[in-house]
Amino acid sequence: MIVPMSVPTGTLESTMTEDLSPAERYAAARTRAAEQATALAPFREMYDFGLDDFQVEACQALEDGKGVLVAAPTGSGKTIVGEFAVHLALQQGKKCFYTTPIKALSNQKYADLCRRYGADKVGLLTGDNSVNSDAPIVVMTTEVLRNMLYAGSQTLLGLGYVVMDEVHYLSDRFRGAVWEEVIIHLPESVTLVSLSATVSNAEEFGDWLDTVRGDTEVIVSEHRPVPLFQHVLAGRRMYDLFEEGEGQKKAVNPDLTRLARMEASRPSYQDRRRGRSMREADRERERRQRSRVWTPSRPEVIERLDAEGLLPAITFIFSRAGCEAAVQQCLYAGLRLNDEDEREQVRALVEERTASIPPEDLHVLGYYEWLEGLERGIAAHHAGMLPTFKEVVEELFVRGLVKAVFATETLALGINMPARSVVMEKLVKWNGEQHADVTPGEYTQLTGRAGRRGIDVEGHAVVLWQRGMSPEHLGGLAGTRTYPLRSSFKPSYNMAVNLVEQFGRHRSRELLETSFAQFQADKSVVGISRQVQRNEEGLEGYKESMTCHLGDFEEYAALRRQLKDRETELARQGANQRRAEAAVALEKLKPGDVIHVPTGKYAGLALVLDPGLSAGRADGHRGFQHHDGPRPLVLTAERQVKRLASIDFPVPVEPLERMRIPKTFNPRSPQSRRDLASALRTKAGHITPERQRKRRSQAADDREIARLRTELRAHPCHGCNDREDHARWAERYHRLMRDTSQLERRIEGRTNTIARTFDRIVALLTELDYLRGDEVTQNGKRLARLYGELDLLASECLREGVWEGLSPEELAACVSALVYEARVSDDALAPKLPSGKAKAALGEMVRIWGRLDALEEEFRINQTEGVGQREPDLGFAWAAYMWASGKGLDEVLREAEMPAGDFVRWTKQVIDVLGQIAAAAPTEGSTVAKNARKAVDGLRRGVVAYSSVG
Questions:
Q1: Pairing mode, if any, of strands 459-464 and 421-424?
Q2: What is the pLDDT of residue 3?
Q3: Do residues 122 and 129 lie in contact, with contact meaning Cβ atoms separated by under 8 Å?
Q4: pLDDT digit string (tens) for 689-719?
């Protein structure tokens, strides 16, 4: 039962109880007494609203000792289940780890739990920060927990519960594997709480969790606590996307369909440039239509939402520059969404949060422009912003002091910023490789932020009208809930050495075969395996039917197939030869040649106007490019001008006669065509083309065919009266055998894929002396401490002493190449590099990568499958060197040509890897560990130090 928030639970229960019989009241009282004895009862009292059915069901399963997978829409309150796991851990004297995919989400959850349980009971562990790590509740990023599991950390002692928030992130192709590693390697005694967005294969994921973690309850809720209404804003009018009506299947608003049809029928600018005239009535209709339909500007959209009472709103723009431009456009338009009192509150909070930033850095960071937008209630939110600035925007938005946020899609990932409305500017986004349509899953994630529970009665998703928009396509996006969870799990070098060290090679291989990736691959094979079984049964029947009492009919059928294949091959060769001869003949044609087109729609007499020889020349008739041989332009005897193709000339063609083409001939003029066609018929109408002689078949003189026919006639089965009947069954047997072999190859390709990749990685590591059988060498132990995309390259650099003798700032520059990856690849300009030893060391790193890349190719380790070492990117080396050298923020950002947020994020990742290198580097006879720690100190200053909690 879902208790309405406006009615106190106790009042509702007492009203219902009065309607019960004495026996029913007694049973209800016993049920309530049993509920009061559970851990859930005091937990429910901590909230001033009733829990939904799915929350209660999940919490009860947890209390019963089961693991849970909760899949529910954004904003439905699934984190309540995670908080109940925290409550159970504290009650039972155990620890609870709460993991999130990103630091910002960890910081937010840390603050929430501190408010509820007190700072002494809550810790925070992110890549570069450790706060109260021995607390009973620790919030951390998923990577931190993975590293703790491999290192056998003492912090894991007493761990009872792990909450994995945003667990659907395991689909992420770059980081998703970490989630599966954690799920597989957590001790059996730990209860797992998995919280996911609505996914269409939650049951499949739950089956896998049941397999690897034991008893797991799958709870799926598709109910949105705040209903979502979909709209399209076109010009001044806000259209509902769907017609009002009952039932699951909603019809798209016919007004929108009419609008799209009207716009499609409107001549485009290009049409008008081509000189297509418009009647006055058409022009008038277009003017009226244009006055109603256009894509509103960003300030217009915000003003319209404000007038409709639909703020606060998040507008998703799939570009950082677009987000910043949107704020500027709203400021230039004079938009003010805050009153004087709200402006003062904004200024006070901003000054408090940014008090530690030096004044000279504020100017560099664009602080004053940012503050002006905030005071007016307008802000951007994207990964290029300073983390402190993003956190301030989030806090002000939640407080209702920022009412319009322009954000990239990264905001949709778990950050607690619910809005009344969500605006989608376009339904196309850049996915890192190309512009692609927004998927139904992405649309659901983004629009899921609309509607604040306990504040809004309804949420609104608004899509801006764009020319060429299809309302039906939008209706499909909004009405589809297909967001399947697909594993992105792949073994890595670091994973391999850690697994072998803990479990040995054989057990490690078995563990990897329990991954969700292999589970999904194996499941997809089940249907194919069943088909193979059915085929094998069919093969038995066919084999029996083709049995011949005179001999081995399978052998006889093989001879027939060989003969047929040879004849087909010779026929194909003959056809190719004739086509080649025909093409040579076409190339010899000249304008004025009279020919006979042998076949096709335009067979008969024709005059060559243009031989169509140039491979790249437009023909001037239809703008067609000739890429498939000569395509002569001809005038037929029936007055048609046509471009012919090689298919019209299966045999070589010879000119029958020559004619002069008048200079005044215009192929578009009917009179010109009529006159020239008449002259053509007069000149050559009486000529009968010479018939092509039929050639002797190649098969007649082929020795292989003669041999096969002799063997066939000599075979005992050739004399069988039922030979052709047996042959039909043999042909069916052959076709089914061929299909079965293809299915078996597909099965082989999908099964044991993860284990095979692991075997290749182990073989390469053995070659490089990181592994010797089940033994992990000293080199391997060093690799086990290095996590990241270029783990093996980092280990090889340590082994070969590439970084020995480098200063801390030079080491920072080199390590940056292991983490940095440019958002857009640009090979036009070589990046600026520090001179001296750092430059030489970076060159040596690239050389080592080249050697590893060649080894990976030899061992068939494929980078395109997400395994292997990408080329180090030197694009951040100069910025890291300058910052570690103590240069000012203004100078570094100007030289790096990079937003402050990106600079801080990459610097923190360099700090993280430097910490790993300090732990992995040899302590004796090496300066690397000491200089890595010094480099960390040099980098962790200014904006990098005060940017955020995590």
A1: parallel
A2: 32
A3: no
A4: 777 666 666 667 778 888 888 888 888 888 8
Residue with the bigger pLDDT between 4 and 360: it is 360
- 8 A C-beta contact, residue 338 and residue 375: yes
Rg of the Cα atoms in the chain: 37
Q: Are strands 159-164 and 95-100 parallel, antiparallel or unpaired?
A: parallel
User: Closest Cα to residue 630, out of 578, 581, 586, 599?
Assistant: 586
For 854-911, what is the HEC assignment? HHHHHCCCCHHHCCCCCCCCCCCHHHHHHHHCCCCHHHHHHHHCCCHHHHHHHHHHHH
Q: Determine what percent of the chain is predicted with pLDDT higher than 90.
A: 23
According to DSSP, residue 98 is labeled E
How many other CB atoms sit within 10 Å of the CB of residue 341?
A: 8
Of 904, 931, 942, nearest to 809 (Cα)?
931
Listed range (96-110, 315-329, 766-780, 803-817) with the worst mean pLDDT: 96-110
Q: What sign does the dihedral 7-9-11-16 (CA atoms) show? A: positive
408 or 808, which is more confident: 808
**What is the SS3 assignment for 46?**
coil
H/E run at residue 330: helix 320-332
Note whether 568 and 560 are within 8 A (CB): no
To 5 degrees, how large is the angle CA 889–CA 893–CA 894? Answer: 115
CB 70 within 8 A of CB 209: no
Neighbours of 484 (CB within 10 A): 14
Residue written as tokens 């390590």?
Answer: 815
Q: Are 267 and 278 spatial neighbours (Cβ–Cβ below 8 Å)?
A: yes
Question: Helices 177-185 & 493-512, crossing angle to 10 degrees?
Answer: 60
263-306 confidence digits (pLDDT tens)? 766 555 444 444 444 455 555 555 555 546 778 888 999 999 99
Q: Which two tokens stand for residue 787?
A: 């996590």
Task: Give the burial class of 477: count Cβ atoms within 10 A of its Cβ; 0-12 exposed, 13-18 middle, 19 or more buried.
Answer: buried
Alpha carbons within 13 A on the beta-carbon side of 644: 32
Spatial separation of the C-alpha atoms in residues 863 and 793, rounded to whole Å: 14
DSSP readout, 706-763? Answer: HHHHHHHHHSGGGG-TTHHHHHHHHHHHHHHHHHHHHHHHHHHHHTTHHHHHHHHHHH
Q: Nearest 5 degrees, angle CA 812-CA 815-CA 819?
A: 125
Segments in 176-250 forming alpha helices (H): 177-185, 202-213
The model's pTM? 0.69
Residue 165, beta-bridge partner list: none
Q: Which range, 7-21, 132-146, 626-640, is most confident?
A: 132-146
Non-local (6+) Cβ contacts of 273 within 8 A are none
Alpha carbon 285 to chain centroid, angstroms: 43
Condensed to tens digits (0 to 9), the pLDDT of residues 816-844 reads 999 998 866 554 457 888 888 889 999 99
pLDDT digits (tens, 9 = 90+) for 448-500: 778 877 777 888 989 988 877 778 877 877 776 657 778 888 888 998 999 99
Which residue type is seen at 246?
Answer: E
CA distance 115 to 346: 22
